[in-house]
Hints:
It contains 17 helices and 18 strands. The chain is α+β, with helices and mostly antiparallel strands. It is 36% helix and 21% strand. The strands form two sheets. Strands 3, 4, 5, 6, 11, 12, 13, 14, 15 and 16 form a ten-stranded mixed beta sheet that branches. Strands 1, 2, 7, 8, 9, 10, 17 and 18 form an eight-stranded mixed beta sheet that branches.
Amino acid sequence: MTHSATQLDSAHFDVTIIGAGINGVGLFRxxxxxGLNVLLIDKGDICTGASSAPSRLIHGGIKYLETGEFRLVAxxxxxxxxxxxxxxxxVKPLPTIIxxxxxxxxxxxxxxxxCGLKTKLADRGVAITEAGMRIYDYLGRRARVMPRHxxxxxxxxxxDWPHMTxxxxxxxxYYDAAITQPERLGFECAEDALRLSxxxxxxxxxxxxxxxxxxxTLHDDLTGQVEHVHTDLIVNAGGAWIDRVNAEIGLSTRYxxxxxxxxxVIRHPGLLRELNGQMVYFGTADGRICxxxxxxxxxxxxxxxxxVQDADTAFCTHDEQSYMLAMLQELFPGFRFSxxxxxxxxxxxxxxxxxxxxDPGEISRDHIIHTDYAGTTPILSLVGGKWTTFRGLAxxxxxxxxxxxxxxxxxxxxxxxxxxxxxxxxxxxxxxxLLRLARTHGLPLARAALLFERYGxxxxxxxxxxxxxxxxxxxxxxxxxKNEILYITTEELVRKATDLLFRRTTIALSGALxxxxxxxxCAIMAEALEWTEGNCTSEIxxxxxxxxxxxxxxxxxx
Length: 558
């Protein structure tokens, strides 16, 4: 695989994609499928921005029905169903519960919102919820893989949710999906592209400094290396930084008006048990929608929706943390929640279109593809969209790019598995697969199952690599081994410790991060990446600073 730190083999690419968030890597894979030579660059790692900070849902967006965005919901549910088939190693069905406080509440506000009028919708009664779930089931009928909705009342609500507020008179249950490792799926899209086309390349921690007569000047921030590449078309997938990227290539645009979304991971065994594998998706008194669901043996809570001017300075504030805990407390007065329960927090800036809307929640999550020109070179700017629909957006953008380049589509990604979802065994064949994986590579069955859970069928490559030389568990986290860390470092475009700890693995997200663990992982990475002792120390300090200041990590593993 082409490593992101290497000198580029080519000085010319059919397409250059600026931005390796999910929209960028999804398009990278889509264009590689068509046989194009594509360069993907990012000023950080793969999926470092908003793509690493979603609610981790693959969903149709039932709330968008209230604003009449039926096309977006239909597309989103279709793409959700495809991802459940194409990426079953990281995308799983998620039963979702809507707490209901009244029988007829919200009918008039819902009609007003549907007609485009401004109004706060804080109560969605049984009638509105039932209607919404019926429409949602209907719009999600294409490639359906999950059950339809149902309602529960009275005693069954009290039995299933003993700590929930007594104000809840009923619950609606429907199905969406969750993605355990969105950052990893983003990497796998890039890896698929590199394996599909030898003419494709990735450059991380690399900025565009100028664009002149079809030539981009690139600066590698880690090595200082400067390169010049010619390209026939540029796609700006810079997310919240789109306007800034366009300025660097000579365009003046005002496409982005991003909002900040923050999330918490909390340790709360009581709530985890009561959720019982389900998500609660609930409205609040201020008209917001919040959520809580099981995640990595903890509970993921989200989210906020706050306009921001500078995406580089966005972080989850203590006020946001207090707000989310208070909303959860309101729904579950039978439990107690506090700052001490928080083991991790994160924040991202949604690349939403610039708007004058007063309520950030009312800004459409649909996407827009803008076409501009720098001289004779077409520039496509990808604005908006959401994680669930990245493949559909990539398909649409690829068709535009192919038309501009006078090329024809030669393949579809609709039925094509991604990364570790390739050759994924059916449920009834899972045990045989794990036995074969364990026997082939001399692994205990429990270890084979753990690798399969983390990497899907890519576990076969990881296990083969780990078996090449003597291996040992990490002293600070024995569920990982030294060779597993080396595999990720050498084979997965890793250049910094944060790439491995925060994105290629769930070590940080699962609450397992500690200063000694960072030190041990960096020492292993130093061997493969040829860091000096000074480089290694700097990497440890920088990584731990990010963990503490941006993610609220205390150092005590959860």
